[in-house]
């Protein structure tokens, strides 16, 4: 059974500066996988590489068995990968509803449409004609998620959903996850909040300075293993995998 | 005195209508893709001269009739859209980016190519488009003034174009995609928008506006191949005075420019255009963001 | 622990420098060994190309290094020309002395002009400078004391023989050209020059490093204006007759853009290579009038799209040539 998304020895550069040094990553249909790591570890670069915002070698990224590395972003979203970007990045000139409609530009069919998104996040329906910038951080995050869902992806990438949000808001956002995954959505999430990442994911990867320093089943990894992998400390005890 | 002032005001407003049509295309291209089309004026002239040539070629169909330009217009508009679309896709898309220099050099180069092309094919003699008397027809307004039918038509078209563009931006999917790529190109592409194609649509529409402006300019007065730069500067000033990012602002800016120029001509014919330029520079000094800038995030 | 050395010039640049010195000396003696009947024409042509080169060098400094693309530098060119003429005709100053003074005036007027010009950025800055140049043109075209729209002539030479005038003009142009090249070269090697390149690469980062961005940009704008004024003053010293339409014509900037883009922007050798190419093209094709200009325009477009670094930049990348090393290498 081929993985839904797979990267093999993925390298990525910003000009001459190398950001990813050979990432091996895999996620199967229906899984929820988390990526953790310190700032600058390469998590966002990884997201950008997968979604086509950073150019990579074609064979380094396999989607449903086919090489998609280096394709332009608008091609990749048409194949079913959607991103909820770090920092939300809503379109300031567009209203809430218009932002959501932008997500449908990829013209993919599926269960997600405007009314379904409003069911998921009712507050957005209330504010649908308002400027997207007038919403609170949490509400903006909902718009960003809804926008990504509107493209009916097979894989949803979430980059730092909890960034800058209060704990109660984070809880509210994450409570929507089960409903999103109920239809069989595959999710990869980058999370600063390590405990949250362990809580919601089945597997997790830890990035450190552009490489994978740890990977495993979330429930079996110890806090000490994770700290060491996170900060890149030399192993004092036996290594990660079960 | 009052009469002359009112007359000048009215003339200025009517002139401003034409300037608005010069400027809308410039405003659109800059708004969507931050591209400054320094060949704007020359493309307007290309439109004028194309119309001159077409009408001259087809004049035997309906000699000296004002209907000929009107009938040709849809065809010219279609061709204009195509030219703009292809130009953007094949040439201008390659030079877009953070550095403004490449696009400036390319459009400037185009400006020179077009000017000299027109010079070769039409010589330096001023030409105009036969309107069968439309350009001197006038209508009586209440209050006893007479205004030309053509300038009124121009103003009407300017208003229609301005509000039409704004409506398109606010209420259509294409307008949405224009706003999106202007806001955040990266995220727009993540949504599935092919920026290159969106830009091409923007330029295509700009060229339609340019052609309308060119045909009207040719009907209103004589055109010669070297007029390009002057038209560009008027278009540019209209955009800046009004404030960037707003089509209505461009309209107001154009009307103000027209009025200012006419006032200047009132004082002294030699200083008319100088006055317009100087007021513009003064405005730049005291309110560089223009009168009605749109606050885009 | 390996030691690093920072070097600036390499062997090719040092030998090129000696070649340049020899060429300058050879050029300076042209009035003595050029054939009698061609001498006048040669010198006049040299002066003309020197003016083009100085103007292009300054435009390159402003745009390539300063990141400010201007389509209005002709304002200072014409201003320098008119200033030189007015100082000579009305203030009785020796025209040769008036040239550097006029250049200074052009540099000075660049300061208030910058207050307006700097209100805009990018493409709109470019067109804004064009508007300013037009205001200059229209202003001088309305000044009857310099002949208004029909222009006027430099009369201050009326007592001096043609031969002496031409020779001194020639040497003045040569000196001006060398001075301009040295000025730009030394400026770019200086701390201000490095600051400039830092600003060009990333303005926000530069500011955070303590570089006075606005002041540096103003300094460059003034130097570029001064240089353009020098070119204008020299040109009309030789040409003797000035009109506002010619002096403030946007074609000056168009040619400068062409030279810089073809040669390679952001490098000192670029405008020099570009000026040479331009001179050669001019010699052979200028008779073709509009077609020639169209060709120039198309060439500039093609080079911009496919040879972003210009022809000199291309050779520098492929073979590492550098005549005017402003970069430091780490060995």
Question: How is this structure best described in words?
Answer:
- The complex is a heterotrimer of chains A (242), B (297) and C (331).
- With 242 residues, chain A is of the alpha/beta class.
- In chain A, 32% of the residues lie in helices and 24% in strands.
- Chain A has ten helices and ten strands.
- Chain A has helices spanning 43-51, 73-78, 96-103, 114-120, 122-126, 137-149, 167-175, 177-181, 194-200, 223-231, and strands spanning 5-14, 17-27, 32-37, 61-63, 66-67, 81-84, 155-159, 186-190, 203-208, 211-217.
- In chain A, strands 6-7-8-3-9-10 form a six-stranded mixed β-sheet, with helices on both faces.
- In chain A, 46% of the residues are buried.
- Mean pLDDT of chain A is 89; it is low at 236-241.
- With 297 residues, chain B is an all-alpha fold.
- Chain B starts with a helix and ends in an 11-residue tail after the last helix.
- With 331 residues, chain C is mainly α.
- Helix content of chain C is 74%, strand content 2%.
- Chain C has helices at 11-28, 30-33, 36-65, 74-90, 95-117, 122-141, 162-189, 191-201, 203-208, 213-239, 244-247, 251-263, 269-285, 290-306, 310-319; strands at 6-7, 152-153, 241-242, 329-330.
- In chain C, the strands form two sheets. Chain C has a two-stranded antiparallel sheet with strand order 1-4.
- In chain C, 46% of the residues are buried.
- The model of chain C has no long low-confidence stretch (mean pLDDT 84).
- The B-C interface holds B 30, 34-36, 38, 91, 94-95, 100-106, 108-113, 116-117, 119-120, 229, 232-233, 236-237, 240, 244, 270-271, 273-274, 277-278, 280-281, 284-285, 288 and C 63, 69, 71, 115-116, 119-120, 122-124, 126-128, 130-132, 134-135, 138-139, 141-142, 250, 254, 257, 261, 265, 290-291, 293-294, 296-298, 300-301, 304-305, 308.
């Amino acid at each position: 059974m081929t993985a839904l998304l797979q990267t093999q020895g993925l390298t990525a550069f910003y000009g001459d500066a190398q950001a990813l040094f050979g990432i091996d990553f895999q996620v199967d249909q229906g899984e929820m996988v988390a990526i953790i790591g310190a700032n600058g570890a390469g998590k966002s670069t990884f997201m950008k590489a997968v979604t086509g915002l950073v150019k990579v070698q074609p064979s380094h990224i396999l989607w449903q068995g086919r090489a998609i590395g280096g394709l332009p972003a608008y091609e990749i979203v048409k194949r079913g990968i959607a991103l909820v970007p770090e920092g939300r990045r809503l379109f300031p000139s567009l209203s809430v509803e218009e932002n959501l409609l932008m997500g449908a530009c990829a013209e993919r069919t599926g269960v997600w449409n405007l009314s379904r998104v409003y069911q998921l996040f009712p507050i957005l329906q209330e504010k649908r004609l308002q400027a997207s910038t007038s919403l609170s951080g949490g509400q903006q995050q909902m718009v960003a998620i809804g926008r990504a869902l509107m493209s009916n992806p097979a894989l949803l990438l979430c980059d730092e959903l909890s960034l800058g949000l209060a704990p109660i808001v984070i809880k509210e956002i994450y409570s929507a996850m089960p409903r999103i995954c109920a239809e069989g959505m595959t999710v990869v999430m980058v999370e600063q909040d390590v405990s949250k990442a362990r809580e919601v994911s089945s597997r997790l990867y830890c990035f450190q300075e552009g490489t994978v320093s740890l990977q495993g089943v979330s429930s079996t990894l110890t806090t000490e293993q994770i700290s060491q992998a996170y900060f890149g400390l030399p192993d004092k005890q036996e290594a990660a995998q079960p | 005195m009052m009469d002359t002032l009112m007359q000048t005001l009215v003339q200025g407003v009517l002139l401003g209508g034409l300037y608005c049509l010069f400027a809308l295309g410039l405003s659109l291209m800059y708004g969507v893709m931050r591209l400054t089309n320094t060949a704007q004026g020359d493309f307007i002239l290309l439109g004028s001269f194309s119309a001159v040539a077409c009408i001259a070629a087809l004049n035997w169909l309906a000699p000296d009739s004002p209907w000929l330009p009107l009938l040709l217009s849809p065809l010219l508009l279609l061709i204009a859209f195509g030219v703009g679309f292809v130009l953007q896709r094949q040439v201008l898309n390659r030079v877009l980016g953070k550095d403004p220099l490449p696009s400036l050099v390319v459009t400037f180069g185009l400006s020179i190519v077009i000017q000299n092309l027109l010079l070769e094919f039409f010589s330096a003699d001023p030409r105009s488009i036969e309107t069968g008397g439309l350009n001197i027809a006038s209508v009586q307004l209440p209050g006893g003034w007479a205004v030309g039918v053509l300038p009124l038509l121009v103003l009407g078209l300017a208003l229609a174009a301005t509000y039409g563009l704004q409506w398109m931006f606010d209420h259509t999917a294409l307008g949405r995609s224009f706003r999106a790529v202007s806001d955040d190109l990266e995220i727009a592409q993540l949504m599935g928008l092919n920026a290159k194609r969106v830009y091409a649509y923007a330029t295509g529409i700009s060229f339609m506006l340019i052609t309308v402006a060119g045909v009207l300019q040719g009907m209103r007065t004589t055109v010669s191949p070297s007029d390009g730069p002057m038209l560009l500067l008027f278009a540019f000033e209209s955009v800046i005075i009004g404030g960037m990012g707003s089509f209505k602002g461009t309209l107001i800016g154009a009307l103000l420019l027209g009025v200012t120029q006419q006032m200047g001509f009132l004082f002294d014919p030699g200083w008319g255009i100088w006055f317009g330029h100087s007021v513009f520079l003064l405005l730049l000094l005291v309110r560089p963001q223009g009168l009605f800038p749109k606050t885009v995030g | 622990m390996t030691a690093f050395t920072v070097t600036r010039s390499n062997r090719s640049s040092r030998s090129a420098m000696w070649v340049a010195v020899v060429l300058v000396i050879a050029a300076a003696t042209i009035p003595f060994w050029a054939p009698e009947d061609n001498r006048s024409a040669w010198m006049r042509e040299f002066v003309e190309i020197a003016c083009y080169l100085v103007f292009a060098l300054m435009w390159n400094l402003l745009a390539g290094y300063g990141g400010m693309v201007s389509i209005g530098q002709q304002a200072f060119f014409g201003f320098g020309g008119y200033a030189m003429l007015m100082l000579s005709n009305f203030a009785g100053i020796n025209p040769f002395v008036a040239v550097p003074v006029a250049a200074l005036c052009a540099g000075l007027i660049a300061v208030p002009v910058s207050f307006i010009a700097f209100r805009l950025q990018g493409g709109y800055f470019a067109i804004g400078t064009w508007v300013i140049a037009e205001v200059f043109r229209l202003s001088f075209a309305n000044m009857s004391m310099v002949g208004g729209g029909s222009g006027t002539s430099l009369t201050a030479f009326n007592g001096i023989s043609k031969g002496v005038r031409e020779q001194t003009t020639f040497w003045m142009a040569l000196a001006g050209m060398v001075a301009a090249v040295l000025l730009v070269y030394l400026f770019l090697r200086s701390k201000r020059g490095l600051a400039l390149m830092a600003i060009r690469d990333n303005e926000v980062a530069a500011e955070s490093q303590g570089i006075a961005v606005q002041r540096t940009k103003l300094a460059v704008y003034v130097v570029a204006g001064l240089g353009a004024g020098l070119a204008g003053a020299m040109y009309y010293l030789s040409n003797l007759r000035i009109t506002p339409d010619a002096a403030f014509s946007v074609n000056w900037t168009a040619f400068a853009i062409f030279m810089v883009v073809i040669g390679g922007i952001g490098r000192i050798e670029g405008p020099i290579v570009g000026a040479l190419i331009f001179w050669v093209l001019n010699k052979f094709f200028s008779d073709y009038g509009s077609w020639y200009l169209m060709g120039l325009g198309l060439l500039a477009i093609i080079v911009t799209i496919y040879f972003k670094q210009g022809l000199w930049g291309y050779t520098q990348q492929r073979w590492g040539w550098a005549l005017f090393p402003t970069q430091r290498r780490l060995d």
